[in-house]
Design brief:
Helix content: 25-40%
Largest sheet: 8 strands, mixed
Number of strands: 32
Number of helices: 19
RNA sequence: GCUCACGUAGCUCAGUAGGUAGAGCACUUCCUUGGUAAGGAAGAGGUCACCGGUUCGAUCCCGGUCGUGAGCUCCA
């Protein structure tokens, strides 16, 4: 080790890496091991600290609340750590101070983390004697011959490691929240109490992280949605059902207009379809068998049962079936901003991100097998273009394969999965496989964009489907003048307009780019002497197609500016006597800067130019 | 759906050891006519989420329902 680095660097080392494995610094070395240091500033180093913090928290909890607290698991997470406990009495945030204080004592004691290797049988006896059934159950699932336990002070935990050398390295930590969590993530098993915390090597980092959380909170789309009057959710209407207020509705219209234009350019035709359909149709499509738990309850109308739509595909299929199709028509690209309803459990609803009624920017492409690859390419290109237009350039791509419950033959699934995979690879796009996460009728490519809170939101989805065409017996006449079955691609790029808008609000903190800002400019007068001029400027801008408001209230300019600023309006158009006399306006930008006075028509032209999307 | 927490005026929040409530902002009216982030005054506004229970009496205590938040589970 000494040979590896200088003394200063050594202080910075948390663990070492030997090939794939991470090892404690206390690990005995063999001559032939090649070691690589894991430092404090590496992601692995931080993970090790946080994992150790989880152990220290568990130790504190056991010491404070007695050995009848059962410990489950406690890993590091993306932004901290947690530990799951089974305890009769609920933890409350009031307990945090005591647990943190106890943790501080453990840190101050600089307890070494020591590793012991035991056989599985020995370990089982050890945890049985300690009265820790969750640990025993974990051991039941371990196939290796030996396991390791880590001790610090009197606390011992089943753990692969590695850990920090001793508890004094935990310099900056904070308990964050309490939540319920099912043992092993299974809702049929006991609900445990999960304590979340976060930890860093130094206090500055912790402070920075907490500050980041504060900033993220300011961008919360639910808060901004209310403040900017974009959308609301009403008890009168019901949970998970979005009401778009005028400003939000206008932004949505701009998004939809752009979407429609872009689709027209890319060879799509627009459809409209109804919100309900006969139950029989949902039986044919397989939704009743495979998607019923997500559907709203059926309704009877004149002895026929109908059901709200959770997807648009069967409606597009019905349109497909209106005439005999020829291969010469292909590819058929049909798109629709289709509003669907899905039953979501109350506990999972969240603002615009998770709702019960939402509009998909859906499309279905019917094509020949030999057109499949190119169509997928086209979709990916259009997809990335649209995301880019909205300012999203960072995303994770997933390839989701066949789920447990599915329709269709294995052969079809394999063909479809292969097609998606080939497309991603030929495009040179990095992706991860999400096994078993496909839809019941086909595999899919999902693109998840990240919001400021670091949450990844699934928006885009591209699905290849050989199965619904079969179920609905879709056909086209091929060159051989015989009937063949078309392939169907389902895709949504923004995914849900609601969710996408939510991500947009957080992405821009409500300060939308000019082209999609519901209000682009607000005309503010200084005194009543300019009332007539305010009106003229307002009318002229409105005629020129600028989305403009005016504030001619009897208030001070400061006050009007403050309001417009809080409303995140891109341009404030200020008119006083000076402007009135010269037939000009003074423009103030969102960032506080002022432009030179200009004519109203020049300003309108400036807005027109800047609002161009591409 | 599950666990925990929360639910007071449009918004943000006080408050009552159980005796039917208060601030700031917003709103209305009046005064003020003021050049780049809150001028002043007055007024209106709440069956303290809803339903039951305990009590002489409940916004406050207890139970249930609904809703919200953080997670779990599930997903666009």
């Amino acid at each position: 080790m000494k040979a590896l680095c200088s003394g200063k660097e050594r202080k910075n080392i948390v663990a070492v890496r030997a090939g794939e494995r991470l090892l404690d610094l206390s690990e005995p070395l063999t001559a032939d091991t090649v070691l690589e240091p894991v430092t404090k500033d590496s992601p692995e180093g931080l993970d090790i600290l946080r994992h150790s913090a989880a152990h220290i928290m568990a130790q504190a909890v056991v010491e404070l609340y007695g050995p009848d607290v059962k410990v489950a698991i406690g890993p590091a997470t993306e932004d901290g750590f947690y530990y799951d406990f089974d305890r009769k009495e609920p933890f409350s945030p009031d307990d945090f101070a005591a647990i943190e204080a106890r943790m501080q004592e453990i840190v101050a004691a600089a307890l070494p983390f020591s590793r012991e290797t035991l056989s599985v049988a020995e370990a089982r006896k050890f945890f049985q004697d300690k009265g820790q059934p969750y640990k025993v159950e974990l051991l039941d699932g371990i196939e290796a011959e030996t396991v390791s336990i880590y001790r610090q002070g009197d606390f011992a935990d089943l753990c692969r490691g590695p850990h920090i050398v001793n508890s004094s390295l935990l310099q900056a930590f904070k308990l964050m929240r309490i939540a319920g969590a099912y043992w092993r993530g299974d809702e049929k098993r006991p609900m445990l109490q999960r304590l979340y915390g976060t930890a860093f090597f130094d206090a500055k980092e912790l402070k920075k992280y907490l500050h980041h959380l504060e900033e993220a909170k300011k961008r919360d789309h639910r808060k901004l949605g209310r403040e900017l009057e974009l959308f609301t959710i009403s008890d009168l209407v019901g949970p998970g059902l979005i009401l778009w207020q005028p400003k939000g509705a206008l932004a949505r219209r701009l998004i939809e207009d752009y979407w429609k234009d872009e689709h027209y350019r890319n060879g799509y035709e627009l459809l409209y379809t109804p919100h309900i359909a006969k139950r029989d149709m949902w039986a044919t499509s397989g939704h009743l068998d495979f998607y019923a738990e997500n559907m709203f309850s059926p309704m009877e109308v004149e002895d026929v049962t109908y059901q709200l739509k959770p997807m648009n595909c069967p409606f597009h299929i019905a349109i497909y079936k209106t005439s005999k199709r020829s291969y010469r028509e292909f590819p058929i690209r049909w798109c629709e901003l289709g509003t669907v309803y899905r039953f979501e459990r109350t506990g999972s609803l969240q603002g615009l991100m998770r709702v019960r009624g939402f509009t998909q920017d859906d499309a279905h492409i019917f094509c020949l097998p030999e057109q499949l690859e190119e169509e997928i390419f086209n979709i990916i290109d259009l997809n990335l273009l649209i995301l880019q237009t909205f300012g999203f350039t960072e995303y994770d791509i997933y390839l989701s394969t066949r789920p447990e419950k599915y329709v269709g033959s294995d052969e079809n699934w394999q063909k479809a999965t292969e097609a998606l995979k080939m497309a991603l690879e030929k495009k040179g796009l990095q992706y991860r496989v999400d096994p078993g996460e496909g839809v019941f009728y086909g595999p899919k490519i999902d693109i998840k964009i990240k919001d400021v809170l670091g949450r990844a939101w699934q928006c885009s989805t591209i699905q290849v489907d050989f199965n619904l065409p079969e179920r609905f017996q879709l056909a086209y006449t091929a060159e051989d003048s015989r009937d063949h079955q078309p392939i169907m691609i389902h895709r949504a790029l923004m995914g849900s307009l609601e969710r996408f808008f939510g991500v947009l609000i957080e992405h821009y903190a409500g300060a939308f780019p000019l082209w999609m800002a519901p209000v682009q400019a607000k005309v503010l007068n200084i005194t009543d002497a300019q009332l007539d001029y305010v009106d003229r400027v307002y009318q002229q801008l409105r005629q020129a197609g600028v989305r403009v408001e005016k504030d001619s209230r009897n208030e001070k300019l400061n006050y009007k500016i403050r309001e417009a600023q809080l409303a995140k309006i891109p341009y404030m158009v200020i008119v006083g006597d000076k402007e009135k006399d010269t037939e000009t306006v003074t423009v103030r930008l969102r960032d506080g800067k002022n432009l030179e006075p200009m004519s109203v028509s020049d300003f309108a032209e400036m807005i027109r130019k800047e609002s161009r999307i591409r």
